Amino acid sequence: MTEFPNHAFAKPPVNLSLLQKLAWLLATVGFAVIVLHFLNLAPGAYYSTQLTFSLSFLLLSVVLYAADLYRKKSSGIKNDGVWFRSLTNRGVWAWALGLVLTVFYVLLYWFPELLGMDAAGNTGVLRLFDPLSMLFKSQPASQWFMYGTLYSLAILSMGIKFLWKYRGNRYQFWRTVSVIFFQLVLAYFLPEIMEGLNQDKAYFAKDLKNFWPLNYYFFEPWHLDNMRAGGSLGMFYLVFGIFGFAVLTPILTYFVGKRWYCSWVCGCGGLAETAGDPFRQLSSKKLSSWKIERWLIHGVLVYIVLVTAVVLYGYFSGTGELFGLSIYEYFRKPYGFLVGAIFSGIAGVGFYPVLGNRFWCRCGCPLAAYMGLFQRFASRFRITTNGGQCISCGNCSTYCEQGIDVRDYAQKGKNIVRSSCVGCGICSAVCPRGVLKLENGPQEGRISEGPIVIDEGGVRIDGFGS
Ligand code: SF4
Ligand code: SF4
């Protein structure tokens, strides 16, 4: 049977196989355990058994469902019917999911006691995660430990689904394995284990790859002091953190574009690419969105540079004030609230089903803005287009999560050199004509603004690519 990968002209019938029904059952049971604990309605015993079953069922349900769904289809992209599903086309289910995620983030940031946080001993859903936290670091679970566990589980399970969906595409395979690895090992297991092994030291052992300015508290006094008091390990974190954003990031972005971080390493990007994959078509492609996005993301970059400068001034001068104003209250705290919590957490993830999966990366992440400057002006990365082959189907633009009108470039045969491109490669993967190619090459002729000139033999002679 011939399959047309992305032309969702007809609503696909929903006929669940036995295995898919089983997967739904496992997901319901796994999720119900968490909800019942949140409502304090679950049995108050055998917490580790309940947690093990809950997390395993959730993981198994996605793996089983994806395997059964995709193994019967030939390899190639499977976005059939995305515009007909309520969840993936801003229908009732999308808004409901957005609301649930938003409420979850509000509880995480501002009302952890409603999740069961209690100095006298956790209750509620946090109590469920206590056994795992005790195993890592002999401490009861915090809301951030629970969040990290669920976040990592989401990247792992939805990453496996992604691998099934995009199987046959080597680039998608390796970058998905990469984001799963970096999330599980560097962002989750390592910090938790390190914290357990270094109980005598003040806390600093966070995610090593979470560079400033994405990690906005890196230069805060408490964090600097903790790293300085952390012996050789603390100094390693301090030096690597500075090296990471000042040296490693520009060099790697010069050679391969910002994709090395945004699509291969970053935890935010990792969640967007895996759990957020069903929502990538929701990014706005309007010119007005592009204009707003540029102001927003560069505004956040300027904001964090200024806040960090003020915080460092306070640290080295030994004063907590600037012009008589408390540095924490008037500079650092508003950034944490507006950008750290509202923008990256609530809007960044909570609004996946409404604004698309990369809203934060596109409009708010200061590290993406920083790398974007290199990508635009000093990088070897570009997406080349073989315009003669383009049939203007628009798949590339539709599934570009960064809202880039890829087709427009393809129709004109221009290279795509955009600061916002995260190099996910999906435009190339969904193109039925093989028009788009992610490449690194010399900077000369990388940005082609002029008309395409082809000689009588069909050879391009305008000096811009082939
Ligand atoms: S242009 Fe292509 S590679 Fe870049 S973000 Fe869009 S889909 Fe991904
Ligand atoms: S580049 Fe490919 S996916 Fe994009 S419009 Fe042309 S043929 Fe379609």
Q: Key terms for this structure?
A:
about 475 residues, mainly alpha, 2 domains, two-stranded antiparallel sheet, about 5% strand, binds iron/sulfur cluster
Number of domains: 2
Class from secondary-structure proportions: mainly alpha
Largest sheet: 2 strands, antiparallel
**Rg, alpha carbons:** 24 Å
Strand runs, count: 4
Task: Output the number of helix runs.
Answer: 18
Ligands, ions, cofactors: iron/sulfur cluster
Helix proportion of residues, in percent?
Answer: 55-70%
Strand content: under 5%
| Cα distance spanning the termini | 35 Å
Model regions low in confidence, pLDDT < 50 over at least 5 residues:
1-8
The chain-level mean pLDDT equals 92
